Amino acid sequence: MTDVHPLAPILRRIAEALEQRATPGPTADLDAADAFVWQADRMSLKPVPVVSALPLALLAGIDHVRDTLMANTMRFAEGLPANNALLWGARGMGKSSLVKGVHAAVNLARPHALALVELHREDLASLPTLLEVLQPSPRRFILFCDDLSFDAGEASYKSLKAVLEGGLEGKPDNVLFYATSNRRHLMPRQMIDNEREHGIHPSEAVEEKVSLSDRFGLWLGFHGCDQPTFLAMVHRYAEHFTLTIDPTELDRAALEWATTRGGRSGRVAWQFINDLAGRMGRKLSTRAE
CB atoms < 10 A from the CB of 106, how many? Predict the structure, then answer.
């Protein structure tokens, strides 16, 4: 009977490790759809055949930022220089809706020109791998990270900084990064203040954290809406979805709804329209085919 060499198990493990390292990285059919979700645990892109997106004309009260982001995105789709964009500000004022709406509008004008790839904040560490998948493609991609922010102790913002601008390889020419956040500098004020008070070199520590937002060439601010803007949102929705109701009654019901929600925003207006349509027995569709 042949004796097994004592080093055999170790050599076997080394061989298996080498085989795994030689295995090609993740691949994807990047023509399968115009939108994808990056699944970091599987290192794969999941196609999204139909995206939930409101028409841009329905987004009231954000005309300037809408036009700015649309122009930036269209230039990118045409192969021209464009900037990474940070959409920051009040909750529920249409930041993520604008990104999805602009993507749909650009592809309506230039079919299949632009793919939207949703990347979750907790998966930022896998961003270099995702870029390796996207870089060889002739398509152009918007990486979209919704509700991006960092808390005390998190260091993943450093890898994001490197990808956006500072790394040796940098960002592929066919990729642009759009993010939404309630924070202008992506860091909580307390975190920045703690660095300022307790750091060995406070100014340098604060500068490193605040400079992350500087990697975005576009800062687009979203602010809370007043009552006329809120009612304009409601009326646009009602007209678009042909919800026939007396305008005075519509205003009264919408303001009552906003009062019960403790504020006015695009999200509150949309929630009211959902409730109104349900009570009227009407279905709403926000799918961008």
Answer: 22
User: Is the Cβ–Cβ distance between 203 and 192 less than 8 Å?
Assistant: no
Please write the tens of the pLDDT for every residue from 132-186: 999 999 999 999 999 887 766 666 666 677 677 655 566 789 999 999 988 766 6
- In this structure, whether the domain defined by 35-222 belongs to CATH 3.40.50.300 is answered with yes
**Is the distance from CB of 51 to CB of 104 less than 8 angstroms?**
yes
Residue range 145-158, pLDDT digits in tens: 998 877 666 666 66
Q: What crossing angle do the helices spanning 227-240 and 266-279 adopt, rounded to 10°?
A: 40
Q: Residue 69 in contact with residue 220, Cβ under 8 Å? A: yes
Provide the pairing of β-strand 51-52 with 44-47.
unpaired
pLDDT of the residue at 208: 54
What pLDDT digit, counting tens, does each position of 254-282 carry? 999 999 998 999 999 999 999 999 999 99
At residue 161, the pLDDT reads 73
Contact (CB, 8 A) for 273 and 240: no
Task: Decide if 17 contacts 102 (C-beta within 8 A).
Answer: no
For the question of whether the overall pTM of this predicted structure is more than 0.90, the answer is no
Closest by alpha carbon to 257, among 282, 233, 222?
A: 233
Dist CA 265 CA 129 (whole Å):
37
Angstrom CA distances, 286 to 84, 198, 277, stand at 26, 49, 13
pLDDT over 90 percentage in the chain: 52
For residues 54 and 105, the model is more confident at 105
Structural domain boundaries of the chain?
A: 35-222, 227-288
